[in-house]
Amino acid sequence: MRLRPCIDIHNGQVKQIVGSSLRDTGDLAKENFVSEQDAAFFARLYKEKGLRGGHIIVLNAADSPYYEASVGQALSALSETPGYLQVGGGITAENAWRFLDAGASHVIVTSYVFKDGKINYENLKKLLREVGKEHLVLDLSCRKGTNTDSSEQNYYIVTDRWQKMTDVAVTNETMDELSNYCDEFLVHAVDVEGKQSGIEEELAIMLGGWGKLPITYAGGVHNFDDLNLLKTCADGKLDVTIGSALDIFGGNMSFEEVVKMMEHS
């Protein structure tokens, strides 16, 4: 299990938010923390610690008046740490190389691929041709619910900055299929994202049981017990992102202690 650090950017600032509170209308979100530092500061910190494979997420929609300011923060961070960080938020086949050329190791995609409740294979294949499997991370951000065709409870992928539910369940079969197109998966457990309320154990067990590609789990970690539980649930096969709980984002978990723990995990 490795620490995959994060830089979340909203309205041109590095923030930690409650994921389920994000709204495009008015560019609103419930904020846990707003940093006085810019994205490049955190990128340099992660590089100093040798932390590769973290992700920058632009949380504004492409038509937001804040979008270019948020992208500017992301590009600045990438320029400080070429090859270290991944980037997501509004990525399409048309703009992916803007971020890869700026220093991203991978682009992270959700809404461009999961559209109108389904997997848009045309867009997925277009993106694959454009950047190659080795540069693509699929974000399977999900929440528990039922789809339109049955009453079965499952984790379903959510898109458009976690505001729209799809009919695509996060299952072994789905991940087997999508693994043909990407290098890694990023999975936000949206119902607990930013709430520091504990991990989604059921989801972690399922993801760890699949384990055929690198997977980063994000959502709910708020203490070291959660980290140990995640490691146990997934048999150490998941990497982890911690946001609001870290002291560098106003939380109670020591970033330095987490880094040390991961070095020996």
- Read across the widest sheet, the strand sequence of neighbours is 3-2-1-4-5-6-9-13-14-15
The first-level CATH class is given as Alpha Beta
What CATH architecture would you give? Alpha-Beta Barrel
Low-confidence stretches: none
Q: Write down the Rg.
A: 17 Å
What does the average pLDDT come to?
89
Report the sheet-strand fraction.
15-25%
The ordered H/E elements are EEEHEHEHEEEHEEEEHEHEHEH
CATH superfamily: Aldolase class I
- The helix fraction, in percent, is 25-40%
The beta-strand count equals 15
Query: What is the general shape?
Result: globular
Cα distance, first to last residue?
7 Å
Structural class: alpha/beta
Number of helices: 8
Largest sheet: 10 strands, mixed
The tally of structural domains comes to: 1
* CATH-defined topology: TIM Barrel
